[in-house]
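Take a record.
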Amino acid sequence: MSELFDRIDALVASRSPLPPPAERKRLRQAHGLTLDEVAAALDVRRATVSGWESGKTEPRPPEREAYARLLGKLAELYPADPNATAPVEGTAVPETFSSAPAPAPQAQPVPTDAAPEAAAMTTEQNTRTRPAANAVPPAAAPSPARTTRPTSSTSRRPVARKAAPANTPAGGTDPRFENGPLAVVDVDADGQVLAYCTGGLVLDVPAKSIPSLVDWTLKEARLGAPKLSGPGKDADPLLVLTEAALKRFGLPVALTDEERHAGRIPEGHKVIKQLVRAEWKLTKRGFGPWARIYRPAQGSERACVQLCIPSWHALDTRHWGEAAQLAPADLARVLGVYASRVMTPRGSTAVTGLELMTALHPPTRASEPDETGKRHSEHNPGSLGKEPVDCAPCEAPDGHPLLADLPRFHVRGPGEKLFEEAYDWARPMTDAECTLRHLVGIDVNMAFAAGANGLTVGLGAPTHVKAPVFDAKLPGSWLVDLSHVDLSRVKVGKDKWADLDAGLLPSPFTPKGDHPQGPAWYATPTVAYAVELGYDVTPIEAYVRYENGRYLDGWYNRLRDAFLATMADLGVHADMAPADFLAAMDGYKERDPELAIVVSAVKATVKGGLGKLRERPRGEGWKPGEPWRALSRPTWRPDIRAAVISRTRINLHRKIVKHAAFTGQYPVAVLSDCVVYAAGGTSPLDFLPYRDGKPLPGGFKLGINPGLVKHEGTQSVLWGEEVRERFNAPELNLARYIKDGTVTDADSGE
């Protein structure tokens, strides 16, 4: 009889009522759950839950009953908006999915660098109290900001009147952030303060001062973005202040030279005094181009708003182009696309790149309940943790406290210092190359991001080992002599050797391409490549990290997806035929200059974020041998930066060797991720070997995906010889100037 009852129960469970797909997604996001968290709870794949939310598939027993129970519980906490579209006829909706106004927005979190009391409040406490906080009676909820059409102004494009969009780029359907991640605050010709949000939405702003603007943002604007990881924090709302807004709120339109050097306005400025009177605080960086205004945590509620001030040079023109000169609605679009695909900017692209790593791998998570049912903050596996770790002495940059005992003017050589950097190598052209007409440059897309993909890096402190056996799977720094590696004969495949002209190749082991002379420190990918080329290695000593993982995988995936999605919007898609790809890349920036700015910012986020892993002192009276501020961060990790650069350089050298072994062609110059070859034609297709549309396995392949290459530029061989003769430099790196032929020492921000 019990078997019969079991079958009856299973039959009932197989028809457990579910809300429509869109409502399933809304409920999950309202509670701050990720697809991965739901998938783990139900013991299914992430793609399975995504399919349920998109309506492509429907859950089956036994997961269906558990999924229905989850949604039912969430529906009690986050009732549906009565104005939402009714479910499609025939869709079963349980009685627990009632209709009621959306919950009030929550106060936003305080940055962990803002105040000790704020940082002490754990994410787990937020998660625990969230249901109660969201279950505010409708009458207590603050009214949402009013939408408006901007008044006439020749400086702005018309923006249609809109209700708050149900699905903004970064906010999704989370009602707390229904107006998107950010707003550009401006003043129209009639003196009305307006907030230009993503999606064309414009809000009336009643605030008369910076403190009231912050209050309005947190209580009415419904700005912000959901967290990127389960244990993480929601993104604070970002306000971008135009020059007109600065004037309205009593702030200078531009900083003086002294203020620019200090990076902030003086503490005695009237606006800062207003904030102090209103009990708002600023982070240690003060009121500068990227200001964070917050109040210390009150129980589970945290409040923080970030300001971006373009006229104070918040948006570096090397990475953001002319974004600061855009009309408010256009600037909101540019920053909104970046925020939705990468994250809400937290400062420069470099700062944001570093913050993205932490947002995807928060240092702590909630523990399992103890015997009293209370959760505690504990280390989040796979993260870098809350506390910084010392690097190995060989990994320390000059001036680091670990090197304080060295003589003042001592110069460390390769046997004392890990020097993993990008390529800067060139050579004179051969007579045969001079008979060709063109120099063609190819550039690796998102090269350093590709170098980070799948890379195992250290998570904890290093362990010093004498005479270790090399392990290619163990991240670390190795003192080893690689001078015996002969590039004239190397392995290019399993048991397949190739004879090459070593004099026409850069060494893979040094940034300048010089052949190593004796023992030197190398990161794991560099030593592993020596083994791959067919040579034995015998390390003398090493600093290895037994606690390790693929920390940068999620970071790479998000930046890759942001890059590919934006390039697709510009008409350049993955898996294009080579000729079609080259045609699509020609003039892609002109198709939508605003989205081209986003592409530039995404690429800068990669390089800048990796650079921040070994940030150097920035003034502040620092002296060699003393610690500097960046050393207090868990994300100050020169070993991770070195490993990524090592792998990126090795990836490029591997392609160069494959190409040389197959075609007999050698590079004339290599700079970071750009390689220049002499060729008979002007296109990469004139020297890249394609057979039936397929590239050389392991060699260069044209395409937009990270790790594939695009056309960087073409100049004549005569141009190259003339430039080198003019500067009396036979080995001048032509890759630096191949793009447009202009020889300059201007800083490109690379």
Observations:
- The radius of gyration is 28 Å.
- The chain is about 30% helix and 15% strand.
- Confidence is low (pLDDT under 50) at residues 84-143, 149-172, 746-750.
